[in-house]
Structures are given as structure tokens and as C-alpha cells.
Amino acid sequence: MAMTRTWPHIAAFTYHEVTDDPSSSGFQRLGAMPYKLTPRAFAAHLARIAAGPVAPTRVTGIDFTRPGHFVLLTFDDGGKSALYAGEELCRRGWTGHFFVVSSLMGRRTFMTAGDIRHLVSCGHLVGTHSHTGELAQFRGWTRALMLRRLKALARAGLPLLYRHYVRRTTREQPGGA
Q1: Which pLDDT tens digit goes with each residue over 63-84?
Q2: Is residue 5 included in any domain, yes or no?
Q3: SS3 of 87, please?
Q4: Whole-angstrom Cα distance, residue 93 to residue 89?
Q5: Residues 115, 80: contact at Cβ < 8 Å?
Q6: Quick check: helix, strand or coil at residue 135?
Q7: Residue 84 within a domain
Q8: Where in the sequence is the domain holding 134, given as residue range(s)?
Q9: How far, in Å, CA of 166 to CA of 37, rounded?
Q10: pTM tops 0.70
């Protein structure tokens, strides 16, 4: 008897910044620069995705108990260019997932709480990528620390979707061996 796959196939495309001026959005450290895409290159990506057989959807629209093919678009860090990316998705009738670094909301190159609310009003899912954006912070995490970081978004009146919590449940527990 042949085994059949009973769960969905998911392709996720992760972006950071979409801008012609890398100094206007997101992290400014040298290591962040390769992750910044021009609007022209982003438009080419979206055109290729649009030419495919599956339109992007939200993770909340996936039934994980049934087979199917899905495309997810995610945007990390919450740089100001996320507003442009969100508008481009809306023009196509698509939604995305935007993960913000909660401690940077309102800084010069990052979105404000009002910007984030606008993304939510367009149908996008918004959550926290972390509180500081540093991967090293996951060593020694406690439940209390994770909840404090989530509360930064909650205080801004934003829905909570926590990227690293999802990653934790599918890989390893933060602070684990």
C-alpha cells in the first residue's frame, strides 16, 4: 500500500526591505544591505509569482490536515518599506505576513504603530519578529521574557502573531540544547 502525503506543500518567500534608498528603511548595518531589494526587482518577483499556478495566501487560510499547494509572502523586521510592499500586495489582491522588531517601532527607518495598523487594515497579518532583532537573544529565553516582548505589540493595540514561537514549536525550543 502506497503512502500518500496528507499535508500541504508550502512555499514561503521571505523579504526584508523593498526600496531604492537602502538608508531609508530597516536595519542600517552592513550585513543587512544584501537583503534590500529594489522596487523594480520586487515587481519582477511578484510578476513571476503571479504567473504561477497559486496565488499567495495567509497562513491562517491553510488547512494543515489536507493536501494542497500554497505560497506565503513574509516581510521581516518592520522597516518603513513594508508599507510599500503591503500596498503592492494589495494592488494584486494578495496578503502577506509582516514581522516587526517591536523595540524599533517608530524609529527613523522603521514603521510606527499607525503604519502597522494600516497593514492590518489591508488584511495583512502582523506579528513580532523579536524585540531586538538579534538572533543571540534566544539563548536562555524564558516564558516570561517571551511574554514581555509580545506585550510591546499588544500595548500598541496590534494583533499578535509570533514568528519565533512558530519556529520554536517546529524546531527547537529557544535556550534548548
Answers
A1: 888 889 999 999 988 999 999 9
A2: no
A3: helix
A4: 6
A5: yes
A6: helix
A7: yes
A8: 72-170
A9: 26
A10: yes
